[in-house]
């Protein structure tokens, strides 16, 4: 799809990729550690994929969840595949903290409080990348 | 957990269940077809489950997605596991339409428009239940 931003994949900070999908760093200071898993092919819904490909994509999502938890020690992980704006399968892996701007609401809800200046280690991205253990 | 509403599982409209998880009907007129898949055990994160149990839970989630798509023909499916309020693994399977109250924003975002009186067939719940094909 020439007009799909996830097909164009410009300006992505890729932590890992293979021929099937990629893991990118989402640079959002409100949720340090936020990553996205993006299917390379332009497919609309998870159930448009064969079962084996669904399993593989979720295996990558959970590998990302594990690395993000290990490095950022969040109070909760949020996982979501929405795609209303960009109908190309992708998963949000979002670390949440009880004092983050939206907690306990989803990150798309109105803010609950002023954004807290969270401590963000400078090598967070590199540490998550180093800890990513994606099965063969 | 005695104080967890998903452990208490009171007042749930159960479409399917086994010893591992259950599928419930979410009675939300804005998103007719909205279902939830709830792990029976009180577990906080997907990566707190062994890989085989993660695979099984997602297999059920995708079976629900398939039935909801077949019956409601939505413009998009949204999947989410958040659990900020109730940290007990559960998945939202939400059919979306371009003219629904929040589209294209997530359902937790501020409304984009007045709720449309969507046509809701009286047997929607029974049809989704009948079409649920959850692998052994």
Q: What is this structure, in a nutshell?
A:
Chain A is of the alpha+beta class and 136 residues long.
Largest sheet of chain A: 5 strands, antiparallel
**Helical content band of chain A:** 25-40%
Enumerate how many helices of chain A there are, as a single number: 3
Strand % of chain A is: 15-25%
- Summarize the largest interface: chains and residue counts: A-B, 32 and 32 residues
How would you describe the overall organization of this protein?
- The structure is a homodimer of 136-residue chains.
- Chain A is an alpha+beta fold.
- Helices cover 25% and strands 21% of the residues of chain A.
- Chain A is built from three helices and five strands, in the order αβββαββα.
- In chain A, strands 1-2-3-5-4 form a five-stranded antiparallel β-sheet, with helices on one face.
- In chain A, helix 2 (51-72) packs across helix 3.
- The longest helix of chain A has 22 residues, at 51-72.
- Chain A is globular and about 40 Å long.
- Chain A binds chain B through residues 44-47, 51, 54-55, 58-59, 62, 65-66, 69, 76-85, 87, 96, 103-106, 108-110, and chain B through 44-47, 51, 54-55, 58-59, 62, 65-66, 69, 76-85, 87, 96, 103-106, 108-110.
- Strand 4 (76-81) of chain A pairs antiparallel with strand 4 (76-81) of chain B.
């Amino acid at each position: 799809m020439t007009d799909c931003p996830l097909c164009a994949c410009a300006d992505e900070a890729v932590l890992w990729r293979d021929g099937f999908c990629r893991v990118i760093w989402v640079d959002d200071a409100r949720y340090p550690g936020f990553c996205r898993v993006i299917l390379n092919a332009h497919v609309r819904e998870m159930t448009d994929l064969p079962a084996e490909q669904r399993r593989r994509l979720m295996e990558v999502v959970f590998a990302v969840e594990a690395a993000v938890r290990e490095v950022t020690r969040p109070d909760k992980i949020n996982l979501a595949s929405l795609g209303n704006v960009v109908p190309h399968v992708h998963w949000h892996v979002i670390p949440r903290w009880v004092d983050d701007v939206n907690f306990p609401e989803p990150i798309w809800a109105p803010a609950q409080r002023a954004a807290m200046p969270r401590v963000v280690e400078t090598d967070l991205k590199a540490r998550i990348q180093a800890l990513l253990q994606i099965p063969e």
